[in-house]
């Protein structure tokens, strides 16, 4: 199942980088290279090192990212249509099987973070079909394109800074691919979320959201930090349902996750 672009997957609150408003923006590729040179100064002011600056300068304007950003239709569907086109029945079936196969793993995540397996598996299935498609777009190029684009530079500028810092730390490389809006890994974190909420789930000393253990631990930690209450309900009208808004601001997405999660958890 190819994942549809989901710009609104995160409502991350990040501090605006210093002097970011002075860099300007553009709606075509024409000024992109000049903009990168100007943005490099902003990146350096915000703690980006040489590896991150080199990655920025190698970024290319991505027309596919712009097209995806202008064509997000699935969140206008009814709940029934949304679940149909996103393959809800397949997600539930596969989610149940994965929970049974990895019962100890998901039980440990719920014990540590308080988030049930069904919620994590529903998100995993919705975002990348359980890791079968985690994107085909250069992550730095996608994020830089959106930070340069005049539509939402204030939103994407902090994510570009974060992506460049992830380059500096070795969490990603200049060749890392993600979704069209720069989302990465099994559950499609935006770079700022990856930087701020990434967890080392397998104990190898690094955060790699393309590793399932790290991605699931990070997803659970993110939800917990956004207000998830262990043991409380997550259906519409219950305590934890509003936390799903922190993952994706589309109500139809939140409702679908809650329904699928309950079916996975039985």
TrEMBL record:
Keywords per UniProt: Signal
- Domain Transglycosylase SLT, chain residue ranges per copy: 32-234
Q: Could you say which residues form the signal peptide?
A: 1-20
Q: Pfam families of this UniProt entry?
A: SLT_2
Name the CDD domains on file.
Slt35-like (cd13399)
Query: Which top-level group of life is the source organism from?
Result: Bacteria
Q: Does Signal show up as a keyword for this record? A: yes
Q: What is this protein called?
A: Lytic transglycosylase domain-containing protein
